[in-house]
Amino acid sequence: MAFPKTFYRWRPHPWHGLEAHEGNVGVVNAYIEMTPFDAVKYEVDKTTGYLRVDRPQLTSSMTPTLYGFVPQTYCSSRVHALSPTSECGDTDPLDICVITERPINRGEVILRARVIGGIQMIDNGEADDKIVAVLDNDQFWKDANDIDDAPPALIERMRHYFATYKLVPGQPSDVHIEKIYGRDHALKVIEASMADYTEEYG
Fold first, then answer.
1. 29-201 belongs to which homologous superfamily?
2. pTM of the entire structure?
């Protein structure tokens, strides 16, 4: 039996089976692992593609936006080159934070996200950038095209969350936020992560 091209007989792997974008690198596909309602850190299992419980959130902080990754991206040498104070890429898919006006309270969803900037984070020496985007068809955010179009208080909340979300009482933090950057640099990071993915996985 022949299946239509757009029909998936089996569930595609969210990292390897979905496209990074649909022809416009400025609007990417995002697979959402966590929402602002989650007190547990969820992460896609790299082998099965199912959502795995990683750990309860270590502090009272909760992610201020939808949080997931861009499919068919990989953070290796090219992403590392754009993060000069890091020692290497983190060899994970590229993370993304998606801002919406209406609350979305469930993960394991796919959405189209318009890129406006990013957060350059170093985690234990590894480049661990967080792309910042808005839900593409969200009319509330239709005029947001760069990081300066988002409220500074929201960007600061995101910066604080990532600077502290791995804190363990009594232990020093190995996470550093180097800078917040705009859309142009974010697009370079996305393109670098796509090229890293192609080199690693073909």
1. Inorganic pyrophosphatase (3.90.80.10)
2. 0.93
